[in-house]
Amino acid sequence: MKLWITGATGFVGGYAVEAALARGDQVQGWAGRGRWPEDLGHLDGQVPLEPLDLTAPETTNDLIRRLQQDRPEAILHLAAQSNPRASFDDPPATWRINLGGTLALLEAMRKAAPLSWQAGSSSHLHWPRLVVISSGMCYGRPEPPDRPPFGPNDPLAPRDPYSASKAAADLAALQYHHAHGFDVVIARPFQQTGPRQSERYVLSGMARQVAEVEAGMRSEVSVGNLEVERDFTDVRDMVRAYLRLTRHAVLGRIVVLGRGRGIKLADALDHLRGLADRPIPVRIDPARLRNDDPPRILGDPQALHEALGDQPLIPIETTLADLLNWWRGRIRGSQSRPSDIAS
């Protein structure tokens, strides 16, 4: 499959590129800076990567030309401002990137018109399948708190600029599906984690702190509310589901991707502490506590299990161990640099 991936250099994008290569796809990567970061340096020379700013006015014309030239069979749209807390710092930028960027891609596809591609001796017109990666946060706060896992038909009730802009982008993509016949799939994943994730996200942040205590860089792990329960999926499982959607989902379908069961942050931290090579003190930091934290948020597991078939999900214990080991490697690497040793 000839596959475009936007946001290819991000946390999820890097795993998507690696999985697509393993599947045998012909991948074209797109990202803001147009160069692979250090963690993805092994992809340099394997996957073409070009800069893409979906908020720039000239982008639409450039994309029209490239769509007509490359004729991708599918586009996995991951480019986004993906941090909910950061979205409060600059809501207009979040809306420009998440909604405006998606609209720019949709308009380029519309103006490029259905693409002609060759299958054997015959030629066909088609829209590239567009898989828009949204968020389970679009459903907002569970009411009542012990309600069943969110499914695709539940109403949207976003509570921050990030999830609101994602919900709006979903509606825009579905409108292009209904009005123009676009082959669109909306995926709403719940939380995903794994090695290479930024410490701004809760499990990665805890794993980094545990590794820093082991390395003597800090004395304790500082956390917020550990009693909340969240639905975490390993990013390596999630991208396998995304790639399956590029081929097998139903037109216009909204897909919720979650495990349907959660883990308390207290249990996740206890597991990380159990993997450590020394006792790990923990301190509750009042600055990290939020009064509006829902106690439990889960996503319906049906679509994820359908997408992965008989392949078992990576256990959360394995994900946590891999995450901690990745941070250990990062910290060892930073400590061994000459500038750090000299200081």
From TrEMBL:
<feature type="domain" description="NAD(P)-binding">
    <location>
        <begin position="5"/>
        <end position="321"/>
    </location>
</feature>
<feature type="region of interest" description="Disordered">
    <location>
        <begin position="142"/>
        <end position="161"/>
    </location>
</feature>
<dbReference type="InterPro" id="IPR036291">
    <property type="entry name" value="NAD(P)-bd_dom_sf"/>
</dbReference>
<protein>
    <submittedName>
        <fullName>NAD-dependent epimerase/dehydratase</fullName>
    </submittedName>
</protein>
<dbReference type="Pfam" id="PF16363">
    <property type="entry name" value="GDP_Man_Dehyd"/>
</dbReference>
<dbReference type="InterPro" id="IPR016040">
    <property type="entry name" value="NAD(P)-bd_dom"/>
</dbReference>
